[in-house]
Write the structure tokens for this entry.
Amino acid sequence: MQVYKLCLKIIKKNIPVMLIYIFIYLSVSIVVTLSSSRQNNTGNDFTDTKANIAFISGEETPLIEGLRKELGRQANFINLPDKKEAQQDALFFREVVYILRIPEGFTQKFMAGEEVHLEKNSVPDSAKAAYIDLAVDQYLNTARFFLSTMGDVTQESLVKYLDDVLSQEADVKLMPAPAKTDVYGLVFSYNYMAYSLSSILVLGMAAIMAAFNNRDLRNRVSCSPVRETAANLQIFLASLTFAGVAWLTQIAFCFFFDIENVLTMNTVYLLLNSLVFTVCGTAMGFLIGSVVKGNEAISAVTNVVVLGSCFICGVFVPAQLLGETTLRIASFTPTYWFVKANNQAAQLTQFDLSSVRLVLSDTAVIVCFALAFFALSLVIRKVRRFS
Amino acid sequence: MVVKVSNLVKRYGDLIALDHLSFSIKEGEIFGLLGPNGSGKTTAINCILALLKYDKGEIEVFGEPMTPESYHIKQDIGIVMQNVAVYNELTVYENIDYFCGLYIKDKALKKKYVEEAIEFVDLGEYRNFRPKKLSGGLLRRLNIACGIAHKPKLIILDEPTVAVDPQSRNRILEGIKELNSNGATVIYTSHYMEEVEQICSRIMIIDKGKAIATGTKEELKAMISLGEKITVESYDVSEQQLARLRELPNIVSVEYNEPLIVIKSSKGKNNLENVLEFIKKENIQFGKIYSELPTLNDVFLEITGKELRD
Ligand SMILES: Nc1ncnc2c1ncn2[C@@H]1O[C@H](COP(=O)(O)OP(=O)(O)OP(=O)(O)O)[C@@H](O)[C@H]1O
Ligand SMILES: [Mg+2]
């Protein structure tokens, strides 16, 4: 295990540099955590500007019409196709803050007093969305109240009663900010991993690769009785150890910054996502280490690649502030998909297959990036060897 | 035979780096590979180590064909590369420990060997230094320690003393002799003829990938016609006198680069005496006068028509 130990030693010598990234991560996370909790305290960030929402209905009935009219007081309707991807993108880019989808047969069930189900999706942490959500609930609850007390009424008269009642009291009411499950803090600490963890991974991997790409050292080791396959296996194991330890360390910090959400299903998907991203970062380090020579050059390239992708992919700056072109370019980096998957994982409220699929499909893109990086480095190494 | 190379041909495109090179090395020898820059020494070594594919020829080490998969053969070879190959992330001690560990699994034995190697190259006070902080000569010594720590049966050193100061160089050369007397066979490449003369029991001179002469240094010197080189320091000598000097028996050539007259004579008796007599007779004023026996450089010069070193 001589080669394995050597790799770990090389990593160890690079720990001081890696600590810088951990330090930056910690400082930024602390600042973000503090400022987002201060935002919580300022509380009622109610504004009377209308929220953009999507109202998608599988049927047209007087009841639905009434609800639409009621919501129209507080919201602009944006047309969205009835496709989950498009809707998630619209939320991600803040085209809408809230999406209400009414399934077919809703009215019939509702009027019969059966249990009904609405699909709601919203931008996390948005007061406007919460306000709309409340309005929806209020409308339906009031309707249910009329139904149960008045017995047999037609939809038309029900809608009329509702219109009368709600137009009187609900017009301008200052809503308290919703109780916050701090999704933003949670996602931030994971998103920011794209900077700290990938810097660390790329640095470490590149340092290992640099040591083994050096022609003189490679020749020297080839003269020894250590088999090439054994040596490669040991390098692989060492990389695995390193990536694993780096991931665990990073995850520990994420948990620390978001202790309340650790036991949610959302965190499971965030973890899966970050694990896949770790593999991808390792492969990227492998690639950079295969292409770039010299320690200074490696850290320069690492900074450019990692920092650059973090800027354009919405790690430092929220994605909705970035232009469409930027985001289109960003989608050629794994970081973009990592951030997207994280944001979606944090927003999940239902964990059925179709909701989860959205997260997993983005995670799958990261896997493809990892495979591509890995394959590319193997090709480069092969070409180099024969030249 | 520890190493047997027959008809080795190595081409780099149009360049023939090794041209039907053949030699064999017996156990216990210090075999010197002497040649100017670019003559193919490193290429030959790399072929022996199976680091390079070659176009033609056979190589046997310890009586077996050498291939990249001959791990049991590699176990007994120690190699000091011309280019220093050490890890910048590791200290002097860790580097030697790493390379020794590639061969030696037993921890206690490894530790002992590493200490001995540090002692051997006298790097004790630098053991915790990183290679970047070592001077060129110290780095060379580290490179040597990494190559020989595991006490191999065959030690190959490719110009190990470049940039090493004369004192350390002598120490290294003495050390190599010591390793040899402890049973190791040594291949030593260099373009310093003095080194090769000092330690090698047999020498092969190569030029442009061809072996031009092989033998002990005495044998090599016996191969050439030059017997003696006499140098006279004088500011006062005429062309006529030089011409008459050329007429003397055994004299091969006379050259005058003020103030030195270099007189080369073939093997024979009384060469120096004849020259002295001539100078007296001609009444030539002279300062120093001395006579040298031929060096390997003269051997190289006579066979190839050029100097071994620029
Ligand atoms: N990788 C290579 N590609 C092309 N030509 C090469 C390569 N390596 C060596 N050569 C050529 O082969 C010849 C022999 O080189 P080699 O390194 O064996 O010489 P050397 O005797 O070791 O010289 P030195 O004393 O400078 O170390 C030189 O002309 C060199 O330019
Ligand atoms: Mg050489």
User: Anything to note?
Assistant: The radius of gyration of chain A is 26 Å. Residues 40-48, 170-182 of chain A have pLDDT under 50 and may be disordered. Residues 2-37+180-385 of chain A form one domain.
